[in-house]
């Protein structure tokens, strides 16, 4: 985003609680008048960031600048900001008017007096009744509650109460309004209405809004700019359109809207292989690089058999009001498709995707990662269409396997891990390939080979279209059939689900 008229700037802001970071290396600037949204899953640090801006919390390190000045040492009430919280605390014994006017009664306004000798001094006074009245009336008008000023707040609906809370914040004429999930307590219909109203208030007030939500749709509809957060870190900053159309990584893509995400391999200039076929794309990545490929469900086109790029079978159909959502299988891969055209379940079709609608992004890890691995009844791990010896005690610190094969943890609990979902990760250098086909657990064909300066990197693809990316010092030929072997100690396992339900 372009730096225009910056009102707020966060520079290398960190917040550490005990030994973990709630917010890490946060760098952001906010332009005056913008509607900016912090979006991310629960616990990602949204509220913490907002509280640091508001002054309720001090950063462990880093700076917060308001209009270019460090506000680190300013207490909350001296910052020209107001916060609207999810649980808006209204005073139940006061009516709407008095709830809104409450803060103004304690506010002091500065005014200048010229003394006889001509020197000027600053004095402070309270707002007059007329001034309070004018401000409250204006705030009531903005939140559309003019007729409600003498209503008891306890008789208001949730949406109306939230409007009072907003009026109470804007009556102070803050430069920035901070809103922490302000619509979280409302039902869906009310929330949608209030979203539009908040947008309208933002337009009327012309001030900067910093909004917090974990609802991606809300962020997309309301914001000028979205900051996607995960684990205390910024994943991407961009306009709703940028974030939706050009997600920076698989996390953002997955979090924003529905997506198909595949592991692909670049196999040529602007050519990527996924779903068992080669696609033209518009992103240029180095040949042989493993990439994440993201395709939005509305960008997959269903064509008659033979007319698209890849054969698929429709296995599921849901009517979603305006469009249908289909699940189609391409080999073992699911493809989510949204379209207004109807198709029958069980028909064989062909799928196509326009090159510019195939988003290619760097993979987060450069290893072989099998997200769909699971433990079988013999405490072995199953992934990539084969069964592998592994050390399951790495799943929980201090655990062991007893004579009967039950997994036990240091707290004395026992588990039967059959069917437990895990993620198996294997470094590319730890996979061994051999031309003795009896030697490994599964066989595959070398579909690609690149010289990497001091070794070859080959991709072995199994019949079921599972890939192993292998670093090897031996020379192979493309289309060689090889067997794949992985030493037990080199298969790194991590839990993908809570093991408590496997307790016996
Ligand atoms: N006072 C505190 N002491 C210790 N840890 C804290 C404290 N406040 C927040 N945290 C931790 O910091 C992390 C970020 O919390 P935060 O409340 O900012 O998340 P959030 O994104 O607002 O989540 P939610 O959507 O659930 O409101 C969490 O792991 C939380 O447990
Ligand atoms: Mg929060």
Provide structural commentary.
The mean pLDDT is 90. 33% of the residues are buried. The protein has 8 helices and 35 strands. The strands form 8 sheets. It has a 6-stranded mixed beta sheet, sandwiched between helices. Strands 15-14-13-16-22 form a 5-stranded antiparallel beta sheet. Helix content is 16%, strand content 39%. Helix 3 crosses helix 4 (158-170). It has 504 residues and is α+β, with helices and mostly antiparallel strands. It has 4 domains: 6-245, Rossmann fold; 259-362, OB fold (Dihydrolipoamide Acetyltransferase, E2P); 366-427 and 488-504; 432-485, Nucleic acid-binding proteins (OB fold (Dihydrolipoamide Acetyltransferase, E2P), Beta Barrel). It is elongated.
Short structural description:
By secondary structure, the chain is an alpha+beta fold. It is built from 8 helices and 35 strands. The chain has 4 domains: 6-245, P-loop containing nucleotide triphosphate hydrolases (Rossmann fold, 3-Layer(aba) Sandwich), CATH 3.40.50.300; 259-362, Nucleic acid-binding proteins (OB fold (Dihydrolipoamide Acetyltransferase, E2P), Beta Barrel), CATH 2.40.50.140; 366-427 and 488-504; 432-485, OB fold (Dihydrolipoamide Acetyltransferase, E2P) (Beta Barrel), CATH 2.40.50.
Any chance you could write out the topology, listing elements then pairs?
Layout: E1 6-17, E2 20-31, E3 35-39, H1 46-54, E4 61-66, E5 69-70, E6 81-84, H2 96-101, E7 108-114, E8 120-126, H3 129-142, H4 158-170, E9 176-180, H5 188-205, E10 208-213, H6 216-222, E11 225-230, E12 233-238, H7 240-245, H8 250-255, E13 260-268, E14 271-274, E15 277-280, E16 290-295, E17 301-304, E18 310-319, E19 324-330, E20 333-339, E21 348-352, E22 359-362, E23 368-375, E24 381-383, E25 386-388, E26 400-401, E27 407-408, E28 414-415, E29 421-426, E30 432-434, E31 442-451, E32 456-462, E33 467-472, E34 481-485, E35 492-495
Parallel strand pairs: 3-10, 3-11, 6-9, 9-10
Antiparallel strand pairs: 1-2, 1-4, 4-5, 7-8, 11-12, 13-14, 13-16, 14-15, 16-22, 17-21, 18-19, 18-21, 19-20, 23-24, 23-29, 24-25, 26-27, 27-28, 29-35, 30-34, 31-32, 31-34, 32-33
Helix pairs in contact: 3-4
The structure holds adenosine-5'-triphosphate and magnesium ion (MG).
């Amino acid at each position: 985003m372009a730096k225009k008229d910056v009102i707020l700037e966060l520079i290398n802001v960190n917040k550490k609680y005990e030994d973990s970071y709630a917010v890490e290396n946060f760098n952001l600037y906010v332009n005056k008048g913008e509607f900016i949204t912090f979006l991310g899953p629960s616990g990602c640090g949204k509220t913490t960031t907002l509280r640091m801006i508001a002054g309720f919390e001090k950063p462990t390190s880093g700076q917060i600048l308001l209009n270019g000045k460090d506000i680190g040492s300013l207490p909350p009430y001296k910052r020209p900001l107001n916060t609207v919280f999810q649980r808006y605390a209204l005073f139940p014994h006061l009516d709407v008017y008095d709830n809104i006017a409450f803060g103004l009664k304690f506010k002091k306004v500065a005014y200048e007096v010229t003394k006889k000798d001509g020197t000027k001094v600053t004095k402070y006074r309270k707002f007059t009744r007329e001034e309070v009245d004018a401000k409250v009336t204006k705030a009531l008008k903005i939140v559309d509650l003019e007729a409600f000023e003498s209503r008891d707040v306890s008789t208001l609906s949730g949406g109306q109460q939230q409007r009072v809370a907003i009026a109470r914040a804007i009556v102070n004429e803050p430069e920035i309004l901070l809103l922490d999930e302000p619509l979280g307590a409302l039902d869906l219909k009310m929330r949608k209405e209030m979203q539009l109203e908040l947008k309208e208030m933002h337009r009327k007030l012309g001030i900067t809004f910093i909004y917090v939500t974990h609802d991606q749709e809300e962020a997309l509809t309301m914001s000028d700019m979205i900051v996607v957060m995960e684990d205390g870190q910024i994943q991407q900053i961009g306009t709703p359109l940028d974030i939706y159309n050009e997600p920076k990584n698989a996390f953002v893509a997955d979090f924003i809207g529905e997506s198909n995400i595949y592991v692909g391999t670049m196999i040529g200039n602007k050519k990527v292989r996924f779903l068992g076929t080669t696609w033209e794309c518009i992103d240029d990545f180095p040949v042989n690089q493993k990439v994440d490929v993201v395709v939005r469900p509305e960008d997959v086109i269903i064509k008659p058999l033979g007319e698209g790029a890849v054969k698929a079978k429709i296995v599921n159909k849901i009517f979603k009001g305006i469009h249908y959502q289909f699940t189609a299988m391409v080999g073992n891969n699911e493809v989510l498709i949204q379209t207004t055209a109807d198709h029958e379940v069980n028909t064989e079709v062909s799928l196509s995707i326009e090159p510019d609608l195939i988003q290619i992004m760097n993979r987060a890890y450069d290893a072989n990662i099998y997200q769909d691995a699971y433990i079988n009844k013999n405490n072995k791990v199953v992934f990539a269409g084969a069964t592998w010896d592994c050390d399951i005690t790495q799943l929980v610190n201090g655990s062991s396997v007893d004579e009967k094969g039950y997994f036990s943890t240091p707290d004395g609990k026992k588990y039967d891990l059959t069917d437990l979902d895990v993620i198996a990760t294997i470094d590319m250098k730890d996979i061994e390939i051999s031309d003795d086909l009896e030697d490994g657990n599964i066989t595959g064909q070398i579909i690609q080979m690149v010289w990497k300066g001091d070794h070859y990197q080959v991709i072995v693809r199994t019949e079921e279209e599972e890939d192993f990316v292998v670093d090897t010092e031996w020379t192979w030929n493309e289309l060689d059939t090889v067997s794949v072997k992985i030493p037990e100690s080199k298969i790194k396992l991590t839990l993908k689900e809570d093991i408590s339900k496997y307790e016996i």
